[in-house]
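Quick illustration for those who missed Monday's session on complexes.
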Amino acid sequence: MGILLRGGTVVSSQGTENLDVLLTGEKVAAVGKNLPAGDAQAVDCTGMLLFPGFIDGHTHFDLEVCGTITADDFASGSRAALRGGTTMVVDFAAPDKGETLARGLERWREKAGCGTACDYGFHMTIDDWNEGISREIEDMMAQGVTSFKMYMTYPAMMIPEGDMYRALLRLRETGGIAGVHCENDGVIRELVEDAKKNGRLAPSSHPRTRPAPLEAEAVGHLLRLAQLADVPVVIVHLSARESLEEVRAARRRGQTVYVETCPQYLLLDDSVYGSPDYMEAAKYVCAPPLRKREDQDALWEALRNGEIDTVATDHCSFTTAQKRAGRYDFTKIPGGLPGVEHRGVLLYTYGVSAGRISLANMCRALCENPAKLYGCWPKKGVIAPGSDGDVVVYDPAANGVISASGQVQRADYTPYEGWKTAGSIAQVYLRGRLAVDHGQVLETQGRFVRREKGRL
Ligand SMILES: [Zn+2]
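Prediction with zinc ion bound:
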């Protein structure tokens, strides 16, 4: 029994090779030339690219923001993920202030326990700091939650920087790693106050109150704390060229810094906030905000040369009705974009097919690096004997068009409406089982992945 994917081109971080892939049970049993089918079902993959299942290291399903809950819960978000070739997501468990990490994790495991279609793990949010939480870091590591999240903006989530420093020291002791949302909150608050005082309440004020230098300042600030604590950190959703300069400076000092960006920062720019239709502009409100064309170019270049390690989505979806809450006040627009469904096809089309990155670059950013960084390599992130049977069969000849009308994610729009795609995802296998066939998501059961300590 099993499935033999025959005649396809296997993509890895090293490049491509024409190889057959045999899936048996939940695993990849063999990879090689002219593998005998035996009693396996042979599937002709001639002309197809075979990627390891994509990993999205940054999603927010079933999360409350601005008094409303994301349009996608774990069931719908994970189906959308799978449909887009993502066989594993790492979402964010967020305890309330005063709650233990254990209780936060329990609540998030309950949320995800109901019908998550792809495999999943959690980053644990540190939005409070005390002796108990410090002790709990070790418990989290033991339970396979080996990465953490800290915020330098959003008062509900931030911790004082002394505590942030303490947390970094603790992560150094335990081998955990933190991803940090870097924006200078204090100055953003002043800019928002000025905008409000002057009656500038349209969505166009959103990017103006969160300009790139305030992201870069926070990145530099965090990296100096990490230098002192002597611990690697992850800069999540890096969006600006100036932030990259801070990362380069830290790396020149000898620090280990990992960088994530997102398709929206590679592909969209802040001109969308100028739309006279406020509801149209509100669809793009997220933090950090979309930047300039020059930033996109810098991010693509950094992705190509390996300065950016991963591309995740920061999927945090709201319907246009939910976004409408902020039509008279941009600060009340729930922030976030839908994207978990389209990352693979966007990176292939506007990255690989457009000649900006190689297939190996794409495989590193979507598969290998997130698997290593988040401690599930080589179980995930590579097509190799013994790895999970997670395979994306990509048909580079089956061009398509992205449209909200055909999507599974529950937002009623996509920022990429009408965008043409070079090729599309033909099938997705999750742990050896066919999970998606030509856009049809079949019934599958995602599993919690206990992760090890991660590093690239
Ligand atoms: Zn996020």
